[in-house]
Amino acid sequence: MKKFIFACILLLHAFCSFSQPVAGGKSKGKVDSQSFIVPGAEWKDTDGNPINAHGGGILYHKGTYYWYGEHKGDSTYWNPKVPSWECYRTEAGGVSCYSSKDLKSWKFEGIVLKPNLTDSLSDLHPSNVLERPKVIYNEKTKKFVMWLHVDSHDYAKAAAGVAVSDSPAGEFKYQGSIRPNNAMSRDMTLFKDEDGKAYHVYSSEHNKTLYISLLTDDYLQPTGTFTRNFIDKSREAPAVFKRKGKYYILSSGCTGWDPNQAEYAVADSMLGQWTVKGNPCSGKDAEFTFYGQSTHVLPIAGKRDAYIAMFDKWNKKDLINSRYIWLPVKFTDNAELDIAWQEKWNIDN
Ligand code: GAL
């Protein structure tokens, strides 16, 4: 009988920990190793505050993941100076960073690129736009290099900012902004290849054409070598990754904060020819990217063929309360992508 009661207690315990979601859970950081990722649910950091790292990307460095993102202000307003589209804005609160060993439990490391509160002409003034920060590590200079989309309050500046730090959790020092290759630059990502070469991938020419630009060895500037891709196709929100020698770009269409259909393309080299393959999403709301927009695809360290597709589920009238959708990326035998909707999934499986 004792054995039976003990077995029941064990079973109950196992059931309780298995049911504890990572996102949406009430637990303050104590996340069970069996926990689920719950796409679109509120996701709290280890202090119990909602994670505020939008349009983000993740760097894996020496056993730790660092999630960088837009730290959004807590009130959203409509910018009447941009009548042509629904320009909802929040104050740009710099770039936040969270760290994790297991991709489930995230510790707030602080604002690693701080806003400039005094100079309204600074790219980092809260009244301006700061979006989609991405960080890569430069082995040669031993610096962490961040690129981000900076813009004027009306999105007319269309430039890319660069910041540098000696350690992953900052503080990053802002180096200024440019229009890379003398062209507009808005939605963007970085990709660092296995040979150490790095690329800045950005929506240019009024968001109509996606540029892939080789960076200098220190990753601080464009080399001048770049390609124009998906010409006049208006692709935004690029996320790049590599698998088995092939390069993949996941992107969204161009409809502001509103969702649209994702698309991916494949190439044999970053500056080569990209072949459009279609929508990689499947299941509920796949034609609207599950109401999300791509921001990054993360290879899971030490796990074969395991990638996470990260999307933002924008809440345009309350931007700070935008959520995160993380889903596993699966591959068919023909190396095609399938990102299937799941209500919840176990990252350890
Ligand atoms: C989206 C873009 C976001 C943000 C938004 C503003 O298309 O991907 O990063 O710029 O527009 O409406």
Task: Map the helices and strands.
Layout: H1 2-18, E1 36-37, E2 54-61, E3 64-78, E4 88-100, E5 107-113, E6 129-138, E7 143-151, E8 159-165, E9 173-178, E10 188-192, E11 198-204, E12 209-215, E13 222-229, E14 236-243, E15 246-252, E16 263-267, E17 275-278, E18 281-282, E19 293-299, E20 307-313, E21 323-331, E22 337-340, E23 345-346
Parallel strand pairs: 18-22
Antiparallel strand pairs: 1-23, 2-3, 3-4, 4-5, 6-7, 7-8, 8-9, 10-11, 11-12, 12-13, 14-15, 15-16, 16-17, 19-20, 20-21, 21-22
Structure description:
The chain has 349 residues and is mainly beta. The protein contains 1 helix and 23 strands. The chain starts with a helix and ends with a strand. About 8% of the residues have low confidence. Bound molecules: beta-D-galactopyranose.
The total number of structural domains is 1
Low-confidence stretches: 5-21, 24-33
Number of DSSP strands? 23
**Assigned CATH architecture:** 5 Propeller
Question: What does the largest sheet look like?
Answer: 5 strands, mixed
* Assembly state (oligomeric): single chain
Query: What proportion of the residues form beta strands (DSSP E)?
Result: over 45%
Number of helices: 1
